[in-house]
Design a protein that fits this description.
Elements lengths: L5 H17 L9 H8 L3 H13 L3 E4 L5 E4 L8 H9 L23 H18 L2 H7 L3
Length: 141
Amino acid sequence: MFTLSTKADYGLMLLSLLAEKEKGKLKDYTSIAALSYENDLPYAFISRIAAELKAAKILTSREGAGGGYKLAGDPSKISVGKVIEILDGPFSPTKCTNEEEKCKYEKKCLICNFWQDSLKKQIAKILNDHTLEDLMGKKKF
Protein backbone atom coordinates (compact mmCIF):
# COMPACT_ATOMS: atom_id res chain seq x y z
CA MET A 1 0.00 0.00 0.00
CA PHE A 2 1.31 3.45 -0.89
CA THR A 3 0.79 5.83 1.97
CA LEU A 4 1.68 9.48 2.27
CA SER A 5 3.38 10.24 5.58
CA THR A 6 1.46 12.20 8.20
CA LYS A 7 4.21 14.82 7.99
CA ALA A 8 3.69 15.36 4.25
CA ASP A 9 -0.09 15.23 4.65
CA TYR A 10 -0.03 17.89 7.39
CA GLY A 11 2.54 19.91 5.44
CA LEU A 12 0.27 20.06 2.40
CA MET A 13 -2.70 20.86 4.65
CA LEU A 14 -0.72 23.67 6.31
CA LEU A 15 0.31 25.17 2.98
CA SER A 16 -3.21 24.89 1.57
CA LEU A 17 -4.68 26.60 4.64
CA LEU A 18 -2.12 29.40 4.40
CA ALA A 19 -2.83 29.79 0.68
CA GLU A 20 -6.58 30.00 1.38
CA LYS A 21 -6.04 32.60 4.12
CA GLU A 22 -3.82 34.69 1.85
CA LYS A 23 -6.24 34.58 -1.08
CA GLY A 24 -7.76 38.02 -1.52
CA LYS A 25 -5.75 39.53 1.32
CA LEU A 26 -2.58 41.54 1.49
CA LYS A 27 -0.58 38.41 2.23
CA ASP A 28 -0.74 38.80 6.00
CA TYR A 29 1.31 36.52 8.21
CA THR A 30 -0.65 33.78 9.99
CA SER A 31 0.10 32.47 13.45
CA ILE A 32 0.80 28.73 13.51
CA ALA A 33 -0.78 28.56 16.97
CA ALA A 34 -4.03 30.08 15.66
CA LEU A 35 -3.99 27.92 12.52
CA SER A 36 -3.40 24.79 14.62
CA TYR A 37 -6.21 25.68 16.99
CA GLU A 38 -8.70 26.60 14.25
CA ASN A 39 -8.06 23.37 12.33
CA ASP A 40 -7.45 20.95 15.21
CA LEU A 41 -3.85 20.27 14.14
CA PRO A 42 -1.03 19.35 16.58
CA TYR A 43 0.78 22.63 17.25
CA ALA A 44 4.28 21.25 17.98
CA PHE A 45 4.24 19.02 14.89
CA ILE A 46 2.92 21.78 12.62
CA SER A 47 5.56 24.17 14.00
CA ARG A 48 8.36 21.75 13.09
CA ILE A 49 6.90 21.25 9.62
CA ALA A 50 6.62 25.02 9.13
CA ALA A 51 10.28 25.43 10.13
CA GLU A 52 11.32 22.81 7.53
CA LEU A 53 9.25 24.51 4.85
CA LYS A 54 10.79 27.86 5.79
CA ALA A 55 14.30 26.38 5.50
CA ALA A 56 13.32 25.14 2.02
CA LYS A 57 12.10 28.66 1.15
CA ILE A 58 8.48 27.58 0.66
CA LEU A 59 7.43 29.74 3.63
CA THR A 60 8.63 33.01 5.07
CA SER A 61 8.14 34.10 8.66
CA ARG A 62 8.10 37.16 10.84
CA GLU A 63 8.43 37.27 14.62
CA GLY A 64 6.55 39.45 17.06
CA ALA A 65 3.12 41.03 17.02
CA GLY A 66 1.38 40.32 13.73
CA GLY A 67 4.01 37.69 12.97
CA GLY A 68 3.68 34.15 11.78
CA TYR A 69 4.13 32.40 8.46
CA LYS A 70 3.06 32.98 4.88
CA LEU A 71 3.81 31.45 1.51
CA ALA A 72 7.07 32.61 -0.04
CA GLY A 73 5.63 32.31 -3.54
CA ASP A 74 2.57 31.90 -5.68
CA PRO A 75 0.53 28.74 -4.83
CA SER A 76 0.33 27.96 -8.55
CA LYS A 77 4.13 27.60 -8.63
CA ILE A 78 4.53 25.24 -5.65
CA SER A 79 4.10 21.61 -6.71
CA VAL A 80 2.69 18.92 -4.46
CA GLY A 81 5.65 16.72 -5.46
CA LYS A 82 8.16 19.33 -4.32
CA VAL A 83 6.51 19.65 -0.91
CA ILE A 84 6.42 15.88 -0.44
CA GLU A 85 10.07 15.62 -1.43
CA ILE A 86 11.06 18.37 1.02
CA LEU A 87 9.24 16.70 3.90
CA ASP A 88 9.67 12.99 3.08
CA GLY A 89 12.58 12.83 0.67
CA PRO A 90 12.39 11.52 -2.89
CA PHE A 91 9.28 9.51 -3.72
CA SER A 92 10.01 5.80 -3.95
CA PRO A 93 7.12 3.31 -4.16
CA THR A 94 9.44 0.31 -3.62
CA LYS A 95 12.95 -0.29 -2.31
CA CYS A 96 14.19 -0.99 -5.82
CA THR A 97 13.21 2.52 -6.93
CA ASN A 98 15.02 4.19 -4.03
CA GLU A 99 18.03 6.05 -5.42
CA GLU A 100 19.99 5.54 -2.20
CA GLU A 101 19.39 1.77 -1.97
CA LYS A 102 20.22 -0.36 -4.97
CA CYS A 103 17.99 -3.40 -5.34
CA LYS A 104 19.94 -6.64 -5.00
CA TYR A 105 17.57 -8.29 -7.49
CA GLU A 106 17.79 -5.57 -10.13
CA LYS A 107 19.63 -7.73 -12.71
CA LYS A 108 17.29 -10.71 -12.27
CA CYS A 109 13.98 -9.07 -11.41
CA LEU A 110 11.34 -9.12 -14.12
CA ILE A 111 9.30 -6.28 -12.61
CA CYS A 112 12.05 -3.77 -11.74
CA ASN A 113 11.50 -1.90 -14.99
CA PHE A 114 7.81 -1.58 -14.20
CA TRP A 115 8.50 -0.11 -10.75
CA GLN A 116 11.24 2.21 -11.98
CA ASP A 117 10.12 3.24 -15.43
CA SER A 118 6.36 3.14 -15.22
CA LEU A 119 4.95 3.44 -11.75
CA LYS A 120 7.52 5.77 -10.18
CA LYS A 121 7.56 8.12 -13.18
CA GLN A 122 3.77 8.25 -13.49
CA ILE A 123 3.20 8.97 -9.80
CA ALA A 124 5.97 11.59 -9.80
CA LYS A 125 4.39 13.24 -12.84
CA ILE A 126 0.99 13.41 -11.14
CA LEU A 127 2.47 14.85 -7.95
CA ASN A 128 4.59 17.39 -9.84
CA ASP A 129 1.77 18.41 -12.20
CA HIS A 130 -0.46 19.49 -9.30
CA THR A 131 0.13 22.61 -7.24
CA LEU A 132 -1.10 24.14 -4.00
CA GLU A 133 -3.55 26.16 -6.06
CA ASP A 134 -5.06 22.89 -7.29
CA LEU A 135 -5.49 21.74 -3.70
CA MET A 136 -7.50 24.89 -3.00
CA GLY A 137 -10.33 23.45 -5.10
CA LYS A 138 -9.78 25.27 -8.39
CA LYS A 139 -8.97 22.15 -10.37
CA LYS A 140 -10.82 18.87 -10.73
CA PHE A 141 -8.59 15.82 -10.51
